[in-house]
Write a structure and sequence with these properties.
alpha+beta, UCP028069, coiled coil, signal
């Protein structure tokens, strides 16, 4: 009986040992498999993290690009607003210039006829005035007419030249002036020194100082100057040319006699 029990215990011990050995063998066989699965999982985690990192970098780049576009948009908006203000200001200036041009055109319509009247009046004045540089003055009038017919000359320049001609006419009416020229007397051209005291008197003296003439404005012709005035006329001519000191002169003046 005792032997049977012992055999049973031995058999149970053998079965337990075999079971433990089998379990150890099975455990030994499952470790590499687990390690392989863990490695796969780790690799999958690494790939997932790499994808996450790549997506994050892409999102950051897109964010930076978006911010750059927003900044550029703001800058362009500010610049466009600035340009629009400049355009508005230029349009306002153009409108103002157009109004001024329209006003100038209206002014020209009144000024141009006035300038023609001024030229006509100037020509008439020269013809009626004592013949001081008469040909030169009439030539100036003709040049003014040419200027008025020249499309390349502005209205303001035309008006300036006309007023300049009027100023030149005013200058003839003041001071002692002497100049050399030709006197046509009784069909003969004589080289003389002309002298005029403003517009009060116009005289001429031959270059040899032996003869003199005076212009009679009432008659519109030259007359022989009395010999008594020749020395005074010579002195007057020298005074006009600043060749001698100013002094009292005795000369006939038709205008003074008419004024009395």
């Amino acid at each position: 009986m005792t032997k049977v029990i012992n055999k049973s215990k031995v058999a149970a011990a053998l079965v337990g040992a075999l079971a433990i050995a089998g379990s150890a063998t099975a455990a030994a066989q499952s470790v590499p498999s687990l390690q392989s699965e863990e490695a796969k999982i780790h690799q999958a985690d690494v790939r997932s993290q790499e994808k996450i990192n790549s997506l994050f970098e892409q999102s950051q780049e897109l964010l930076y690009e978006y911010r750059g576009i927003v900044d550029q948009y703001e800058q362009l908006k500010v610049y466009n607003d600035h340009v629009q203000r400049l355009v508005d200001d230029q349009n306002a200036q153009l409108a103002s210039l157009q109004r001024q041009i329209d006003s100038v055109e209206d002014t020209k319509q009144g000024v141009v006829p006035l300038m023609y009247k001024m030229i006509d009046a100037l020509e008439q004045f020269v013809k009626l005035d004592i013949p001081i540089h008469r040909e030169r003055r009439l030539d100036r009038v003709e040049r003014l007419r040419d200027v008025m017919a020249n499309s390349n000359v502005t209205t303001s320049e035309q008006f300036r030249q006309i007023t300049e001609a009027y100023q030149a006419e005013m200058d003839y009416g003041s001071g002692l002036i002497a100049y050399e020229g030709k006197l046509n007397f009784q069909g003969e051209d004589i080289s003389v020194d002309f002298f005029h005291l403003g517009r009060a008197a116009l005289m001429a003296q031959s270059l040899d100082l032996k003869n003199g003439w005076i212009y009679n404005k009432d008659a519109g012709e030259w007359e022989v100057l009395e010999d008594a005035y020749l020395s005074h006329l010579t002195k007057a001519i020298r005074m006009a040319r600043k060749q001698t000191a100013p002094d009292l002169l005795q000369l006939p003046i038709y205008a003074a006699e008419r004024a009395e």
